[in-house]
Structure formats: C-alpha cells, structure tokens
Design a protein that fits this description.
The chain is an alpha/beta fold. Helices cover 34% and strands 15% of the residues. It is built from eight helices and six strands. Strands 1, 2, 3, 4, 5 and 6 form a six-stranded parallel sheet that branches. Strand 1, helix 1 and strand 2 form a beta-alpha-beta unit.
C-alpha cells in the first residue's frame, strides 16, 4: 500500500466549510499522514530536516490548498522554496524524491466554467498548476492530475458530500494500484470513472 503525505496549507482553514469537510475524510484512512503547515509553522519557521524526514517516509506527496491568486498560499510556497533543496530534491545529487508521485488537491471559489479559455480566468486549473508540475518533474517525481473542488461557495450539502466521497475514493485509489494507464487521458482525478 502506498503511503500518502498530505501537505495542507490554508491560512483561513477555520472559515473553509469545504476544506474542513475534505479533511474530515482523512480520519478514516490508514497510511495517510495529514500535515497542516499553518498549524505547525504559524511563525513561518519551517523545520527543514523534519520535513525531509516526512517526505522520505511517504510514497505520494499531496499539496492540498486553496487556489490563492492562481497559486498556493504563501507558507506552501515557502515550504517548496526551503525544503526542496538543490542536491537533495534536484540537481546532480538530488535523488531524495525520485520516483515518488505528487499531485495537487485544490479548492476554488470559481467554477469550472470560469477556469477555461472562454471564462473570466482565461486559463484552466491545469495551466495555473504548471509551476507545481514542473517542480515535481525537476525533482524526478511523477506528477499526477489534480483533484479539484470548484465553485465551493455554491456547493449544496449533497454536492459537498459527493466531493468528499470522491476525495476519499481518490486517496484509496492512490494507495492501491495507482495505474498510470487509468489516468493517461484524465485532466483531473475527479474525472476517473469509478475510482477505487
């Protein structure tokens, strides 16, 4: 079974109905480590050695965050800047993350219709996530399609329940076979039929 590290960054987590519900799913899953960066580092002083140890113990790394100004919250960016060091994560001697898998789990206030060439944001979520994809590739990681919960402000309780169930199924899928063949034509992990 693949072990999963969820690096969670949300500066206003207590105000996020959607992320609170998504995170509740994690209590039911073995082999999943939930690591809240804002809770661990409210002063932004990241323990780089500890973070590297966490990464070494897991097969799959999930960057779970809201889409803030078309990117991630500042503490997650700082985590990437400081923890993914040259000659550790990348570079001639940087082999620590080689062959691990990585993906984003994101929430957006805007709907899918807004995140496309015809929408007001002009680009898809995948296009906004290109820096994450390239970061993973530079570190010799396999970057997987993202899992997204969009239009969070307008989700009914039933729709949010469905998204939470899909999130749990997606994590169980990643813990198992995690076959690239299943994902090859998939823009987002939400789109895999019958996950798990």
């Amino acid at each position: 079974m693949n072990s999963i590290l969820i690096l969670f960054a949300h500066p206003k987590f207590e105000q996020s109905r959607t992320n609170k519900r998504l995170v509740q799913q994690l209590d039911q899953l073995e082999g999943v480590t939930f690591h809240d960066l804002y809770e661990s580092y409210p002063d932004f002083h990241i323990n780089i050695s500890y973070e590297k140890e966490l990464l070494a113990r897991h097969d799959i790394v999930v960057w779970h965050h809201p889409l803030y100004w078309y990117s991630c919250p500042p503490l997650m960016k700082q985590w990437i800047d400081l923890v993914l060091e040259y000659n550790w994560a990348y570079g001639p001697e940087g082999k620590a993350l080689q062959q691990k898998k990585c993906l984003n789990v994101i929430t957006t206030g805007g709907s899918r219709e807004l995140y496309c060439s015809e929408g007001s944001n002009h680009y898809s979520v995948n296009e906004f996530l290109r820096p994450f994809e390239q970061t993973a590739r530079l570190c010799n990681m396999e970057y997987l399609p993202p899992f997204t919960v969009m239009g969070t402000h307008k989700l009914s309780d039933a729709e949010l329940d469905d998204q939470c169930e899909q999130y749990g199924q997606m994590l169980r899928f990643l813990q198992g076979d995690c076959s690239p063949q299943v994902m090859k034509d998939c823009a987002m992990l939400n789109d895999i039929p019958q996950i798990g």
